[in-house]
Amino acid sequence: MALEIPGHGGAEEERELRDVTFVVVDLETTGTKPDSDAITEIGAVKVRGGEILGEFATLVDPGRSIPPQIVQITGITTAMVVQAPRIEAILPGFLEFASGAVLVAHNARFDMSFLKAAAQQCGTEWPDFTVLCTVQLARRILDRDEAPTVRLSALAQLLGAGTRPTHRALDDARATVDVLHALFERVGNLGVQTVPELVDYLPEVTRVRRAKRVLAADLPAAPGVYLFRGPSDEVLYIGTAVNLRRRVRNYFTGSETRTRMREMVTLATRVDHVRCAHGLEAGVRELRLLVAHTPPYNRRSKFPQRAWWLTMTDEPFPRFAVSRTPTAYALGPFGSRAAAVEVAATVAEYSGVRTCTTRIPRGGVHGTDCPPAAVGGCPATVFGARASAADYAAAPATVRDLFTGRDDAPLRAIATRIDGYVVAQHFEAAARLRDRTCVVVRALHRTQRLTALARIAELIAARPDGNGGWDFAIVRYGRLAAAGTATRGIAPMPVVDGLVAAAETVRPSRLTGDEPRLPAGPDEFGTPDHPPLRGAPPEEIAVIARWLEQPGTRIVRTTEGYREPRRGAGPWLPWVERAESATRSESAATEYLSRTSA
């Protein structure tokens, strides 16, 4: 959003732009994520009518070391901030400095996200600021020919700023002041003289679009799903909201900047809604409605049946296959066939599953025509030059054990190989295998996590609603069977009993007998009679799993405990997180530049 004006209509906002006080702020940080990174420097300039009223500048101790790639960009080192005050000591002073002003930043979403995170960390309520983003303002005022990029350095040069941006907070704030004034001069020639007029001008909201706000008039201020319908009563778009009226009204204002949504709103003739108990029910109902209507303006989740699964063929010498239909011991779901093939290649290499495509009869042997795995050939050559089906049976058994979490031998073999690469100083090979392994572990954990939920006949969970009440979910075999709430002062257990009595009956899917299967193993996490998710739609069960994992969620009761396999992918997640952190650090400098300079 270019402007956030919750209190739209105050005396300060009705003044002409030259009479409004602006505080232009810039931050330097340890990275790009406000939930895990921290502010290292704040610079701000207070201006009104082209006159500088004051400046605010300080280094901030982030409480952690500054990554080398960030030091290279900003020049701010850990030694420079170690004696600086912490954000708890600085934020009150900044808020006092900015009190009553309109906040301005270049790529305001970045700076505001860090300031709001700092306020939350300090236990300070974030004031109801009006926020102006010079990136959005520049994109509205300057055409692409004149300004191919809206990076601060490029705009400062184009518009003749007196200060050159240096990736230090105060310098960049001063440069943004000059850019802001130059943009105001241009927009002033178009008759935009006040902040409200700027609000109306900036998002290019048409009169016809604004008039359609009446479509949201009768919607409740409650959670639910909304459906935009077109001239022939067709469903154009489906979405969810915690407040239906407020969310739908946003489509008819400047806060909606997506071209596709503008087009959709132009076609819409009415908005239907389904009121829901809470966000989880809204998310699940949205997925089911997307499948039922396949609206043209939704980009995702319309075809959950198109998910891909990694399975094994039904033949004496099984090999990997990618299928739309999961078998008893399948891995998935994958969003693309290529993703499943990539995982298959890695698992085959370290489990001995053959990659050759020759069909071998039951009495045949494998290996006569395959080059050794050591020279890029078929992994199954580890069983010998003439391996029988009995010899080869160890490979599919290893896969079954890996997928169901009975044994993580292939993952341990990969880790040993990575360590060997590092010892031999083959760092690029180690990094490539590390990244491939992260993909495999994530896929394994996704399947094992969702399978653990899908196997439970009934699970009743509760989460605090934030107002002293409870949100409830009845989950049966990975599907939402009922949802409800008990507001503050209402006894919760009678509500639960009523939900259970009225909940949808869910029967788990069973294999028909036509699907290829591996032999059943002596484990409780994989069964030869059911697919992994037991018929639950992958996206629905994923939404439910995320809701259950949020802080504060409690299990009221369950037919059996939720558990993942002890030797599954779960214990490997810390290894994956360290590996992914190393991968992210390699591109942090590029991302930091793009976020801070827009």
* Termini Cα gap: 14 Å
Shape: globular
Strand order, biggest sheet?
1-6-5-2-3-4
**Sheet with the most strands?**
6 strands, mixed
How does the helix and strand content classify structurally?
alpha+beta
Number of strands: 16
Give the low-confidence spans. Answer: 1-13, 515-524
Helix content: 40-55%
How would you characterize this protein structure?
- By secondary structure, this protein is α+β, with helices and mostly antiparallel strands.
- It is 40% helix and 16% strand.
- It contains 22 helices and 16 strands.
- It has helices at 11-14, 68-74, 78-81, 87-98, 108-122, 134-141, 152-158, 169-188, 195-201, 207-211, 244-250, 259-267, 279-293, 337-351, 389-392, 394-404, 409-423, 427-454, 492-502, 538-549, 573-586, 588-597, and strands at 3-4, 22-29, 39-48, 51-59, 102-105, 131-133, 224-229, 235-241, 270-275, 308-312, 320-323, 331-334, 459-464, 470-476, 479-486, 554-558.
- It has a six-stranded mixed sheet.
- Residues 1-13 and 515-524 have low confidence and may be disordered.
Helix and strand arrangement:
Elements: E1 3-4, H1 11-14, E2 22-29, E3 39-48, E4 51-59, H2 68-74, H3 78-81, H4 87-98, E5 102-105, H5 108-122, E6 131-133, H6 134-141, H7 152-158, H8 169-188, H9 195-201, H10 207-211, E7 224-229, E8 235-241, H11 244-250, H12 259-267, E9 270-275, H13 279-293, E10 308-312, E11 320-323, E12 331-334, H14 337-351, H15 389-392, H16 394-404, H17 409-423, H18 427-454, E13 459-464, E14 470-476, E15 479-486, H19 492-502, H20 538-549, E16 554-558, H21 573-586, H22 588-597
Parallel strand pairs: 2-5, 5-6
Antiparallel strand pairs: 1-6, 2-3, 3-4, 7-8, 7-9, 10-11, 10-12, 13-14, 13-16, 14-15
